[in-house]
Amino acid sequence: MSDLRRLLNPKNVVVIGGGVWGRSVIDQCQKLGFEGQIFAVHPTAETLAGVSTYRSVSDLPSAPDAAFIGVNRFATIDQVRALSAKGAGGAVCFASGFLEAKEEDADGTILQSALIDAAGGMPIIGPNCYGFVNYLDRFCLWPDQHGGQAVDTGVAIVTQSSNIMINLSMQQRGLPIAYALTAGNQAQTSLAALGRAVLDDPRVTALGLYIEGIGDLDDFESLARHASMRKKAIVALKVGWSEQAQQATISHTASLAGSATSADALLARLGIARVNSLAEMIEALKILHQVGPLTGKRLVSASCSGGEASLMADTAHRQQNGVVFPALTQTQRDGLRSVLGEQVALANPLDYHTYVWGNLPAMADVYSAILDAPIDFGIIVVDFPRADRCDGAAWDCVIEAARIAQKRTSKAVALLASLPENMPEDRALQIAKAGLVPLCGLEVGLAAIASVASVHPAPEASVIVAPRLGQTHILDEITSKAILSDYGVDLPHYIVVAQDTLPATLPFPYPVVLKAIGEAHKSEVGGVIIGLSNQTELKTAMLEMNQQRYIIEEFITDSIVELLVGIVGDPAHGYVLTLAAGGVFTELLRDSVSLSLPVNQNDILNALQQLKLAPMLTGYRGKPAVDKPALVKAVLAMQTCVLDRRASLAEIEINPLILTSKSAVAVDALIRIGENADA
Q1: Which residue, among 233, 224, 125, has the nearest Cα to 180 in the 3D structure?
Q2: Together in a domain, 334 and 392
Q3: Considering its fold, how many domains does the chain have in total?
């Protein structure tokens, strides 16, 4: 495919089609200040929004760099073919009724294929999209209003929804947007391809993504690696649940690692900051634009109110996203005490009262003192008065004092308003011009800080792609355990017996466990009885369970903790590993962490530390520590099994994996397989 930069940074443009949309494209382009040449194509009209028209693309005096096609879906294909033949740089296809309408119109899929064929090597954006705005070069192919303005540098945002992009362009939070792009159906040019193209622009500082579906995993991974190579960060808001993951609900693992979790695990693996709302995305992008990714989540906060300091601490505690406010160092305490005296209680978050308010040198000294520590980000809480009723001149000292403190300490500093509306756009722009980060809203601001601190370079190892499977079925416990045993997973000793063939002696000592064969959740249907201490109890249990065949298994008596270890294949996001509290506590505690495969030993050990039951793994209240090498060995063995069998493997689950001080034993297991739909 040709270089997208010619389409995104054109010298001339053609608008094809009349009506309100075509006129609006020309109008918006002129309003933004585009200095290149604008052509128009219309079969009958003499002018379009004041621009003289040509009857066809072939009549144009030269090949346009960019085109907006605002005609119906059938005519769109013809115009794309004509533009490609003319040697155009690329086109935005506005019309709908292509692949997105396949459920209502069978022609949609056929038409989208025809559109791709017509384009040949010419880039097309869409169809079913509004196009893009390039605020750096004052150019747009955009058929509606937008709220942005020309900038010299800023962030790029790519969305799969045109309306979401309109909404983002209307933000009044002080975020400089360099490119606003919509991907539509991604018939030919993907969201990832658009992202790579704008990241190559040195004037772009970071990338925001609104994702409905990732599509090609290799393509998306290449975007993450491209951003790492360019040393620019990505923030993503992922919405939607894949149909495949919704169907995978037979096991505990699938219910814990649904599509939302697997998408989150994928983004985390690729070093992409994950956010939960458009507001969080905007705030995170402001941080990245001003200071870049944060190296950690150690914060200091200063405000002139005890209420604000308490809200800051409580919000961080409630969000549980790793943000911490370290205790003040002696250096900080000495610096603060020298300015504030003995009457102010020193803490982090700090309430510095109003003793120094309006005293610029003293305020700068306070801010400098609290920033003088091994922290990753400094926050100064300030809510500006509403300009229509109040005089905000007395608040200018906060911005100037923060600027001085930032220059003295070289620490990243944000001015954060506890309520978003208390950070007017003019104040946000003033703060950004001073080299500081304007954050709108306490909860959203802290969440954005935490997300930006999660950015890291994308790994070289590719995600393990999961197949699209048709009808799946579960292998019974005996078959599942036999497969896992071949990969080195430790199992308890067991035998399989028929209803009337209990041997006089067992090959392992009592107590034992009796299990039914063929039940996915045995404890929920009376299919497992543990701790049977002799043959009489065992026979009685067999009669009560009333099965044709049973598993009799040794009872692991020295258990320290039980884990669930599961791997589920999500065709949208790859295979995801879930570690969780196991046994009967899996769904009760909901204590889990998920990782995108592949993983290594360090990944596993770090994930275990995120579990609430982590203290039990290292020795708790006099109990010994579990055998972590054995645990890691079991998880890596499951991963190898996935790699070997991924053409048909939908899921593996061990629940529980009983951990002792000397072993990790897979007491129960299931494997779900199916036929590869692509094959």
Answers
A1: 125
A2: yes
A3: 4
